[in-house]
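Regression check, magnesium ion case 883:
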Amino acid sequence: MTTRNFRYLFQPESVALIGASRRQGSVGAVIASNLLRGGLAGPVLPVNPNYQSVEGVLCYPDVAALPLAPDLAVIATPAPVVPELLVELAARGTRAAVIITAGFGEVAGEGGAGLQQALLDAAKPSLVRLVGPNTVGILAPNHGLNASFAHLAPEPGHLAFVSQSGAVITAVIDWAKPRGIGFSHLVSLGGMLDVDVGDMLDYLANDEQTHAILLHLEGARHGRKFLSAGRAAARTKPVLVVKTGRHPQSAKAAATHTGALAGADDVYDAVFRRAGMLRVNDLESLFTAVETLADLKPPRGKRLGIVTNGGGLGVLAADELLSRGGELASLSNDAVAALDGVLPANWSKQNPVDIIGDAPPERTGDAVRVLLEHADGLDALLVLNCPTAVAAPRECAQALVAALEDGASIPVLTSWVGEATADAGRQVLNAHHLATYDSPGPAVAAFMQLVDYQRGQELLREVSPPAPDSFEADRGRARAIVAAALRDAAETWLPEVEAKELLAAYGVPVTPTRFARTPEQAGELAAAMAGAVVLKIVSPDIVHKSDLGGVLLDLSGAEAVTAAAQRMQARISAAQPQARLEGFTVQPMERRSDSHELIVGVTVDSQFGPVLLFGEGGTAVELIRDRSLELPPLNERLALNMIARTRIHRRLEGYRGRPAADVGALARILIRVARLVIDVPEVVSLDINPLLADSTGAVALDARVRLGRAGPDSANRLAIRPYPGELEQSLTLPDGRVRLLRPVLPGDEQVIRAAFAGQVEEQILVARITQIDFDREMVLVATETGPAGAVPVYGVARLLSDPENRTAEISLLIPRGDGGDTLNAGLLDAIVRYAGTRGLAEVWIRVALADPVVRSLCVDAGFSELPATQPDEFSRWHLRLLA
Ligand code: ADP
Ligand code: MG
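Current build output:
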């Protein structure tokens, strides 16, 4: 992850085009023309031994002949010579290249893979940044850069568009041009040998010219990098994404219900949501959505009020709203009474507010005014209009504009339906900057995009899990189970008994389950259990037991169980002679009235690592397909959201007199399963199906776990780096009191604010330092053992490294009095040691000259003061960690 040398890519002061051409219509000719007409302030230098000039500009025979080292090289020569060219350019001082040429192994069997490596080898020593190969090029219209073979020149503007597909770039330019949509950047990433989507997100997040980032993705690589960069970017500006392309489901994963339910595209949904990016369905929606985000402030919730002069339009909008997961706002009694005062007696009396087809234009304004005055239950308002003989769309629009004269407390969207006369209405709305859409569907879609965007922004603040819940997982037990199972196999299914034990070690309630080798033993075990039992077959070759009659419910008495087990064995042996039958499990028959069968699962995605799944369970899960996905780690809010996104959620909340299920217990189970997969990298997939839930809690009746030996970098398999509990350490003060040094948690925010109330300028930073991405930055706090928010914070140390991860700045929030010496020194020492483990070469501290406390801390910690280059209120202290 680095944006090093990106300024040479997007703000070059000189550009060479290697492979410039005069041949009409050739790529080399189109790029030359684009570069020369782009408006770049610096020189554009064509290179081609065959011409003296290109487009009337002096052409150089080769790189050696160039009068200066170009900041950026655009290369459009045949593939085999590109690596050599790069070596030459790098030696002259070029630090960025756009490789238009294809044929570096994007097409199998071309022998390009070796060439790809040669490209990387050529670029690496001097960190030349490469876009491509196989790219249409890059454009930065505000800078006058058009290093592409696009057929049209886009307008300058504030949208950045990044795509893996070159064709999409040119299509977008074509589409945007007549609409007057301008761009800060258009980037065709091509083969992404070096610069990838994550790098672009990092760069554009910090680019002031860019107000929103639009992505067209076919597939992301480096899941963690993509997610970290996406989250960082989405905190600063809207990031919208269209994802296309299908991905083959791994055959292995589909052996579990979770694997079959969690398609790669669903995983992307979860990733985009967690990153705070807004996903839309097609390219055009990218632009309408970004316009909506610019025009309207996001609503607080998803309750939409609808005003219409045509009942049918209202129904259409309401249907669309419900199918997209929105809610029809319900009108308060006050609102209905107030509307009675301005509408005819036969109005709909509910939302959608049908003001009736005979409505004169003023009625639209009256209804909107009343609703805005009673906006308590509304998060946004949609005003619909269809042309009628009594009210011209234009006049209705004017009435609406008048009603909104004093502003509205909630977003207002409009749709004037029709063409011949509706257009005049739309013009009025546009002139007054009201968000307007051609039909109710897109208007509702835009509303739901705002809702999703807002929710994503809220979720962005939920990236770190809270302190582990009071339950302590029995990690030793879990490790022992996994080690035993993988002793003789690289991959294996855990038998039901062990799978349940593993879950129990992480605090997931399970039915007590015993193993019996023989039918007789099964009978004995059943006799020892109070009440009816369930008998199940145990075989490494049978994944779905009930499909083969391998589950018998509600059996009582030793003899009955033994006889049933004998019949089960005989039946399965006959049906599946090759299956190894190892024995049976016996467990109590769970009987709960008003219970629900749920599924909780884990599958491992090839890009984004472990993914959690929750949904309606039972033997028909694949048919029901009611599920939601989320990435670990989870906290309570994320877990509850996950549950709320399923259809079964409504039933879990209780209905028709049936009691609600214990949703809090379900959230706890999800959080604990998330901890299990974080801690145990050997878990390849996991199914708890069914998880039986009722008002008293939930219990796993069946569990299936696939294990595989963990690779060396298993810690990096998680797309989101979880709370690094391993950094917790205790510190004993001279008077014997003990302090805990640990990574910051979001719950610490209020306590830190209160503790450092005097240090005003730091206050602004508090929200930022308590909600961090542990993959990118680190904040340690000195505190006591206990839940974040309930214990005091005595000091804070933050480490923020440059994008190349070479040097980092440390900042400290520490007590200003005396007495904190040991604590302060301990905190500084801990953060410096952490910097060492991150491979940083050097750390810095900026110390106010008037701050003797930090100054002496630095001296004691071995930092040295740098000579001041100019008078300053700060001095800089540094410590070299690597030679
Ligand atoms: P499989 O998924 O391999 O077919 P399960 O162990 O999930 O087998 O059992 C199938 C069904 O039997 C479950 O969906 C559940 O309805 C029921 N069942 C399983 N175990 C119990 C139990 N201990 N108490 C009550 N019902 C059970
Ligand atoms: Mg099952």
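Comparison notes: The first strand starts at residue 15 and ends at 18. DSSP finds 29 helices and 39 strands in the chain. No diff flagged against the previous build.
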